[in-house]
Structures are given as structure tokens and as C-alpha cells.
Amino acid sequence: MADNISKIPTHVGIIMDGNGRWAQKRLMPRSSGHSAGMKRMIALAQKAKDLGVKYLTVYALSTENLSRPQEELDKLYSLIRTYFIKNVDKLIKQGAAVKVIGDLSLLPKDVTEVIQNGVNKSPKDAEFTFIMALAYGGRSEIVNAASRAVAEGLELTEQNLSSRLYTAGVPDPDFIIRTGGELRLSNFLMWQAAYAELYFTDTLFPDFTNGKFEKALLDFSSRKRRFGKV
User: Fold this and answer.
1) Catalytic pick from 3, 4, 50, 65?
2) Fewer CB atoms near the end CB (10 Å): N or C, the chain?
3) Is pTM beyond 0.85 here?
């Protein structure tokens, strides 16, 4: 199928929805779904890199998710502690850069340190960048960027705001995929997604195989992007 994809997006965003439901359908704890989802996330990053995607941003933990039961959050943090470094190292050895966006001050200090240690190992000028959105909220990102610009005495222009977002220096996403059957962005890259093509699938994220990812990219390659022009 990959040979039929005529146009690869530069930047893909994925809202990885359905991990908990995937586990519940199998009478497993929700944490098992997060574990399966994290493995799928890394595999998709490797596939995206192989296909020629330059940036992949995954919505791993929203600010709204932080209100979930503490037991579920603790198990998710444990996954990050044990799984993040191992797999980030794997991506970095393959020449990928790793970036994390979000308000990391909302996470446990040791989790933030684990994340930062992994990010600091990233190569400069990599051909592929894997971006994890953790403790991330699109609206608060915009407010924070605007506040920074005002504090610096700058006029609120698109350029001044964009350059103060978490994603400063990263091109806006061309294509955003949401798994799990919901039809909304859920506060993901609200500013950056202004002209992104959207793709929704009922597939729960742990079942979103490389083949289904390629099918989504094939759909993208068939679209005509006009950006308001004729």
C-alpha cells in the first residue's frame, strides 16, 4: 500500500484515543490498554519515519486527563518511567529527535526528569522528530504564548504568538488522525491545526496498525488542499 501513497504529509498529529476501552473490552485493567497503546505509539513512530514523515506529534496525556483516578495516573506515570527511556533511546539510535510539549510542571518531578533526560539525548538537525504532548492543552498553550508576548511588550501578531508556542520552529500539522470513534480535536494543537486535514476512525488506538496508518495516509494523499484558494 505504501507504494500507492503519492503525497506524504510533513507533519502528522495523532490523537491516540481508545486505550482504556480497548482494555475494558478484553476484561483487562485500563493500565493494560495504556501499555498496549505505548507500544503501538513507538511502532507507529518508526513506521512514520520509514515512510518519510518528518514530524509526528502524539497526544499522550491531556491536561483534562490529569483529573482521572489517581490509580490510573500512577500506572501511566510508571509506564513513562519504565518504558519512555528504553524506547526513546531506540528512536534516537535510529537518528530521530524527541521533543515533549506541555506543562511538565503538572507531572511528578521524577517523571519530568526522566522525560528531560531522554529529550536531552536527541540529535540536532534530525530528519525525523517524534513529539509527545504530555500534560498538554491547546487553549492554555495559546494563552501562555500570548501572555509571554505581552510581557515582552510585543504586538499580538500571528508570528509573535506562533513563535512562543510549545511547537515553535515546527511546521503546523498537515494531517491529524483521531482513533477511537470520537469526532473532535479535544484541545489538541488548536492553533496549529487551523488548516490540517482531519481523519477519524472507529479503531481503538492499540488496534491502529501500521496498515491502517498507511490507509489513512493514502486518504490524505487523495485530498486537494486549497488553503482558502480556488
Assistant:
1) 65
2) C
3) yes
Nearest Cα to 131, choosing from 30, 52, 21, 48?
48
Question: Distance between CA atoms of 140 and 160, rounded to whole angstroms?
Answer: 16
Torsion of CA 74, 76, 77, 82, to 10 degrees: 120
For residue 100, what are the CA distances in angstroms to 73, 136, 158, 196?
Answer: 18, 10, 23, 21
What is the tens place of the pLDDT at every residue in 90-120?
A: 888 888 999 999 999 999 999 998 888 888 8
Q: Let me know if residue 164 belongs to a domain.
A: no
Write the CATH number for 187.
3.40.1180.10
Domain count, the chain: 1
17 is known as an active-site residue: yes
User: Which structural domain, as residue segments, surrounds residue 180?
Assistant: 2-137+171-221
Is-contact 88 41, C-beta < 8 A? Answer: no
Q: Which amino acid is at 209?
A: T
**How open is the CA angle 115-137-87, to the nearest 5 degrees?**
25
Give DSSP secondary structure letters for 25-58: HTT--HHHHHHHHHHHHHHHHHHHHHHT-SEEEE
Facing residues of 30 across strands? none
At residue 13, the 3 state secondary structure works out as: strand
Instruction: Please report, as a single letter, which amino acid is at residue 201.
Output: T
